[in-house]
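Posting this for the archive.
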Amino acid sequence: MTRSSASYERWQRRTDRPLLVLALLFLVVFTVPLYAPDLPRTVQAALVINVAVWIAFAIDYLMRLLLAPDRRAFVRRHVPDLLAIVVPFLRPLRLIRLAGVLGSASRRVGAHTQLRMTTYLVAAVVVLLFVSAGLILDAERDAENANITNAGDALWWASTTVTTVGYGDRFPVTGQGRLVAVLLMLGGIALLGIVTASIAAWFVKHFSALAAKEAALEAEVSDTSASLASIAARLERIEARLGER
């Protein structure tokens, strides 16, 4: 590992947990007003928190860019991170960096890849559900003929929509709400595809390992049979020599 690579890895290890905390803080600041608009708002405090979180993620991105061995490759591989800075709304998605922390701890038990994928999915689903429910509630709460008017309705609608079930008992009536619904449906289809692909990949890997073990066992049995046949042939020759005497 080069000096630059070592510095990059060291920086990422040191910033994983603090940035996770900041992402959670931003998520709270973003969603609480959507669910409880009547609570007394400390606008200045929320603004300070948002700016502080944005600065922290911007500094993190720039530091990793400077420390990366190949900066062009870094930019290509970290487009979501760049979007999280350019488009502040996407910052809660940085919760998936929790996979880096858990993955480092899981390397000793050899579960890094599976744990990382599971964490990605769980974080994505949680963020998608709560943010979408908050946005739909904010759009529909005071609309005429609205049927999504409280947090329970919003979370129920988000859950049925993201899973592509769509019971139809709750639905948006505003343009903003329908836009949120379209994005949530696309996100649900994408997540469903990822889950299906992950399960299929697990089965393929599992059965490939079993096939490899079976092939190795057959080869071992074949070698054993050949050895036994060779021993039997030698014994026959010995018996034939003894019979001649």
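The CA atoms of residues 1 and 7 lie 10 Å apart. The radius of gyration is 29 Å.
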